[in-house]
């Protein structure tokens, strides 16, 4: 394994090398209007100049995969072609999508076999920063690189000089610089914090130097694509404003301040507005500060002055998407008790219809449960009439944080440990700390079968998932 020390040394060594972020490729579009998205083996220079290329699984030959961009409300058509040695599927994370296009094998579609293809065709109702990723054996397929950005453009673009994508991943590489395959399925990872890596990248590059100009106004789109790492960034000396979370604009822009930190759990996104007031020649680190010591994962280098840049002008406001507000007067109340994992108190749970002891569960690779059930069931957690408002409490009785994701819907966080916190943000993935209760609310307005699961992918695989069904009758 690459040790943390060598990771640090490599980061420092590469900091002066002017490693540019890879050029962003837009997905190629066929004559029939479909974006072509091939999932298959690829190679990438994750280690930069520090080591050999790394063999990956990737969309369109690179990780992150090509950018898919579409206009809000217009059709998105993508032809997934599977050139992998195993079945796959693609999920469009955060899109309030038609159920048949959600990409969940066994729930919304069959897996796409090697050599097979699947046509995804959907309307993206909300503008914002989204992403696509494998949803079959995602704990392995995503760790090997199968994800990419999905950008839905506002009808009127936000006034900014440039847009910059920062797609963050946390790879676990062996001493040979290759994806550490021996630890796939490690029960230790599955029962603890998930597969944490030892090599952080931005846009598939090690410590990239992102070039900016004084006077520019930048829109940054950040996506945490890691399997399990909660990333906390310190954007030193930059003072960006948070304008959207999980794709959805905030009602009020939020300062993170000059020493402020921004936490992104796995699958979460943030849109930031950054006015560059650096002097030419200034270099500012992007630090990941979850550990005791900050680690530089990239930097901004000011390499000139923008003529007529927008920095300092009046702050623009993103138009809000049209999400239905939950009616809290008589909602359907659902509780989701989260149990299991290392240092947990779970003694047994139902798996495949049978009550199993913790020892038997471990033998099945199932160590987490929701409401006493590990993994999927034939019967949903709830059948909900379309249009019904739902108040759902995540009750985390484990010793670990979990990034809980609801498919097909965005929700408001109403309370933490019973204390009201609604700040107007809409999320599709929310971090629930150890022993915390988080209450969320949403309108179940999207018919179909939808997953709720932890986006620490090892937790999902080891039992922390369930589903609900929204029936077609109006509520
Ligand atoms: Cu989890």
TrEMBL record:
One GO cellular component term noted in the UniProt record for this chain:
outer membrane-bounded periplasmic space
Entry-linked Pfam families: Cu-oxidase, Cu-oxidase_2, Cu-oxidase_3
- List all membrane-crossing ranges: none
PROSITE patterns listed in its UniProt record: MULTICOPPER_OXIDASE1, MULTICOPPER_OXIDASE2
Q: Which PANTHER family match?
A: MULTI-COPPER OXIDASE, MULTICOPPER OXIDASE LPR1
Q: Where is the Plastocyanin-like domain?
A: 51-155, 166-274, 363-472
**Could you read off the lineage of the organism from its UniProt record?**
Bacteria, Pseudomonadati, Pseudomonadota, Alphaproteobacteria, Rhodospirillales
Identify the keywords attached in UniProt to this record, alphabetized: Metal-binding, Oxidoreductase, Signal
Give an example GO molecular function. oxidoreductase activity
Q: Could you tell me which Gene3D superfamilies the record lists for this protein?
A: Cupredoxins - blue copper proteins
Q: Where is the signal peptide?
A: 1-20
Q: Which domain of life is it from?
A: Bacteria
What's this protein's name?
Multicopper oxidase family protein
InterPro entries, per the entry: Cu-oxidase-like_N, Cu-oxidase_2nd, Cu-oxidase_C, Cu-oxidase_fam, Cu_oxidase_CS, Cu_oxidase_Cu_BS, Cupredoxin
């Amino acid at each position: 394994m690459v040790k943390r020390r060598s990771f640090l040394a490599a980061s420092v060594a590469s900091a002066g090398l002017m490693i540019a972020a890879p050029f962003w490729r837009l997905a190629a579009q066929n004559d029939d209007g479909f974006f072509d998205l091939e999932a298959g083996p690829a190679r990438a220079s994750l280690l930069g100049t520090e080591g050999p290329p790394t063999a990956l699984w990737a969309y369109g030959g690179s990780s992150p995969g090509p950018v898919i961009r579409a206009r809000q409300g217009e059709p998105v058509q993508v032809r997934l072609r599977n050139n992998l040695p195993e079945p796959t599927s693609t999920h469009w994370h955060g899109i309030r999508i038609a159920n048949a296009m959600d990409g969940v094998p066994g729930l919304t579609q069959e897996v796409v076999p090697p050599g097979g293809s699947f046509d995804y065709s959907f309307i993206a109702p909300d503008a914002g920063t989204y992403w696509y990723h494998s949803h079959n054996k995602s704990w392995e397929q995503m760790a090997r690189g199968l994800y990419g950005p999905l950008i839905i453009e506002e009808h009127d673009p936000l006034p900014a000089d440039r847009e910059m994508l920062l797609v963050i991943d946390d790879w676990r590489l062996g001493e040979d610089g290759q994806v550490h395959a021996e630890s796939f399925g490690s029960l230790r990872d599955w029962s603890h914090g998930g597969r944490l890596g030892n090599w952080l990248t931005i846009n598939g590059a090690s410590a990239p130097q992102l070039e900016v100009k004084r006077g520019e106004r930048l829109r940054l789109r950040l996506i945490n694509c890691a399997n399990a790492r909660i990333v906390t960034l310190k954007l030193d000396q930059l003072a960006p404003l948070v304008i959207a979370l999980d794709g959805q604009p905030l009602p009020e822009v939020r300062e993170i301040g000059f020493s402020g930190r921004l936490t992104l759990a796995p699958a979460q996104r943030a849109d930031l507005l950054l006015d560059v007031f650096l002097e030419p020649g200034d270099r500012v680190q992007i630090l990941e500060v979850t550990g005791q010591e900050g680690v530089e994962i990239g930097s901004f280098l000011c390499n000139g002055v923008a003529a007529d840049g927008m920095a300092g002008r009046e702050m623009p406001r993103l138009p809000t998407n049209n999400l239905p507000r939950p009616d809290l007067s008589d909602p359907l109340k659902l509780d989701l008790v989260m149990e299991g994992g290392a240092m947990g108190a779970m003694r047994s749970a139902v798996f495949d219809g049978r009550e199993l002891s913790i020892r038997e569960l471990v033998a099945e690779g199932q160590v987490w449960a929701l409401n006493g059930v590990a993994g999927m069931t034939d019967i949903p957690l709830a059948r909900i009439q379309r249009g019904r408002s739902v108040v759902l409490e995540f009750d985390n009785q484990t010793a670990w944080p979990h990034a809980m994701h609801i498919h097909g819907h965005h929700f408001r966080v109403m309370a933490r440990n019973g204390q009201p916190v609604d700040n107007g943000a809409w999320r599709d993935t929310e971090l629930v700390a150890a022993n915390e209760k988080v209450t969320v609310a949403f309108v179940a307005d999207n018919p179909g079968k939808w997953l709720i699961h932890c986006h620490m992918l090892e937790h999902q695989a080891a039992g922390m998932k369930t589903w609900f069904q929204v029936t077609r009758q109006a509520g």
